[in-house]
Each structure stands twice: as structure tokens, then as C-alpha cells.
Amino acid sequence: DIDECATSPCKDHQYCLNTDGSFSCKACDASCTGCTGEGSHKCKTCASGYMKEDEKCTDIDECNLPEKVCVKENEDCVNTSGSYKCVCSEGFEDKDGTCVQT
């Protein structure tokens, strides 16, 4: 068997899996920017919104950062994988970018 992976035939966001007589390109974990294998512990670098923690790329909870990310009045922060979103607090709705009472 020739190790086709030695020539790095895959794209930047993929890793190479050598198989008997061939190879396949597999997608890197969403937390990675480039990887050497499967999972968040095989990242070359962490993707935006992720940080290296215990040798793995883990999601940054932007909602718990000291500096508030959702600064409008009556707005709450909701953490998402690799990011966050700002939503109107309960009892309020978005009207042209402002949270007004419903």
C-alpha cells in the first residue's frame, strides 16, 4: 500500500485517511482551522470563536466574557457553537433593531 496521505492531497479544512490501496479526505471538526485527524483535539489551530483548552478546541462562551457583547437595552446574549447571538429579552420583541415591550 502506498501512503497517498504523505503528499497531502486534501484541502486545508480536511484530513487525509489512508486506506488499503487508496485514501479519503475527511472534514475537520467545526472547531478547527486545519487538522491532522478527526476531532477537536487534532486541530492545527482553533477556528474563530474557539480556544485551546486541555489540548482541545472548545467553544468560547461570549455571553460570559467580562465585556458585554449584547449592549442594547432589554437584550440577552445566547451562546452558540463558535459564536453568539443577541435576542430580545422575554416580553420584548425586535422592532427595527430595538427591543420594545410586547
Automatic annotation (TrEMBL):
Coiled coil (residue ranges): none
Domain of life: Eukaryota
Segments forming domain EGF-like: 59-98
SUPFAM superfamilies the record matches: EGF/Laminin (SSF57196)
InterPro entries: ECM_structural_protein (IPR050751), EGF (IPR000742), EGF-like_Ca-bd_dom (IPR001881), EGF-type_Asp/Asn_hydroxyl_site (IPR000152), EGF_Ca-bd_CS (IPR018097), Furin_repeat (IPR006212), NOTCH1_EGF-like (IPR049883)
GO molecular function: calcium ion binding
Pfam families the UniProt entry points to: EGF_CA (PF07645)
Keyword terms: Disulfide bond, EGF-like domain, Repeat, Signal
Family the entry assigns: Belongs to the CRELD family.
Record protein name field: CRE2A protein
